[in-house]
Amino acid sequence: MTETSAVGLQLQQLAQGQSDLHALFAEAPDLFCRLDADANCLELCPHWTQLTGWPTQTLQGKGWLSCLKPEETENIFQMLHRAAAQAEPTEPVEYQFRKQDGSWQTFSIRSRFHQGSCWLHCRVVSDCLTQGSQQNLQQYAQTLDGILSSSSDYIYCFDPHYRLRYVSLSGASILGYTCYEMVNKTGQELGLPGAIAARLNQQIAAVLTSRCSATYQERWLTIKGVRNFEYAVSPIHNDSNQVEAVVINARDITDSKRSERILKNLAAGTATRLGKDFFPAFVYHLTQTLDIRYAIVAQLQSDRQLKLVAAYPASEQALSPYWDITGTPCERVLKQGQYHCLEQVQQQFPQASSLGVLKAESYYGITLVDSQGQPVGLLCVLDDKPFPYSERIEQVISILQLGPELS
């Protein structure tokens, strides 16, 4: 006997009273319920409560209809009409059913009408999928994740009950989760602090109500520490133009925030300094703002020689008024425009004895150019620990345009 004919026989036995209703309910892995011609639920098996979390009294009458998506309610009535007009069970149709926890469960529903009642046989879709269908869905998911992985943004999709429907691979990993661990959970269930979770829910609710996108900024704890994010919350409309979810497109703006703060601090520290006082003030405030050990500004005297303009600390004995760049990281800077050594800079440049005296571990340097684009010197910073912030320094230098001041 095929699965379809077995289901039909079960429905027929139920409809004709030839089967013990409660015995069948207890043994069957699927869900059954009995409706009248107006789609009122008259009776349902206990599996409904176990699977959906709703108490029986909530689902009786028209209660179960309220758990369907509004646009699918009319489809239920059409199915009842088809069942009433034919002797065999209807073809299976998929419906979304809202569980008590706010998540959605997809059911495949067949119906059979007999003596004023319609019997529904419901099966969880995940149990009905063929292996081929599961593979196709997995391929679609992998394709989508592949597309999103090329973006620097993090994608999160929430339903109207503030539960995640979808999260991109990068969006999950930055928070220290897998996608599976995050889906169907609220922000609070994912461990967000209460105030942040509440604000996130308010932002989602505002977009659901206004049907318009909005942009926010927030600080989130990630596997990289506390980071600043800017994110757009946008509505997703269904075929009936109803907002059924919101998508959050988040971007890490921590580095740009730091660059802004660096510029503000440097501007505040050097605003009143002119002429020869500018560079000593600049290198001092640069070390304080970036929390690094040394900062040096040097002027190009010839192809192979630099002249010290300013340094912090100024009393460092390893710094000569003039030095030859051969075999030093400064030579690499002037040749390439910039150079960054995250760690072990002494091993990289064994000829540069001053690096050992300074106990330097990391180095970053950038060429300073005049208004014609010609090199006139360099700025470098050194630290006794690994220093990874080359991009931020480059942004600061390019904005401040120190080259014309040096020339």
The strand line-up of the biggest sheet is: 13-12-11-16-15-14
Question: In angstroms, what is the radius of gyration?
Answer: 34 Å
Q: Number of DSSP strands?
A: 16
Global structural class: alpha+beta
* Ends apart, CA distance between termini: 92 Å
Shape: rod-shaped
Assign the CATH architecture of the largest domain.
2-Layer Sandwich
- Portion in helices: 25-40%
- Give the oligomeric state: single chain
Summarize the biggest pleated sheet.
Answer: 6 strands, antiparallel
Number of domains: 3
- CATH superfamily descriptor of the largest domain: GAF domain
Uncertain runs with pLDDT below 50, 5 residues or more?
Answer: 1-5, 14-28, 127-131
**pLDDT averaged over residues:** 78
* Count of separate DSSP helical elements: 17
CATH topology-level fold name of the largest domain? Beta-Lactamase
CATH class of the largest domain, named Alpha Beta
Explain what the structure shows.
It is a single chain. The protein is built from 17 helices and 16 strands. The strands form 3 sheets. The protein has a 6-stranded antiparallel β-sheet, sandwiched between helices. A 5-stranded antiparallel β-sheet has the order 2-1-5-4-3. Strand 4 (104-114) and strand 5 (117-124) form a beta hairpin. The chain is of the alpha+beta class and 407 residues long. It folds into 3 domains: 3-128, Beta-Lactamase; 131-252, Beta-Lactamase (2-Layer Sandwich), CATH 3.30.450; 257-406, GAF domain (Beta-Lactamase), CATH 3.30.450. Residues 1-5, 14-28 and 127-131 have low confidence and may be disordered. Helix 11 (254-270) runs antiparallel to helix 12 (278-290). It has helices spanning 3-15, 21-27, 47-52, 56-59, 70-84, 125-128, 131-149, 169-173, 179-182, 194-210, 254-270, 278-290, 329-336, 345-348, 353-357, 390-400, 402-406, and strands at residues 31-35, 41-44, 93-98, 104-114, 117-124, 154-158, 164-167, 214-222, 225-237, 243-252, 294-300, 305-312, 322-324, 338-341, 362-369, 375-383. The chain is rod-shaped, with a radius of gyration of 34 Å. It starts with a helix and ends with a helix.
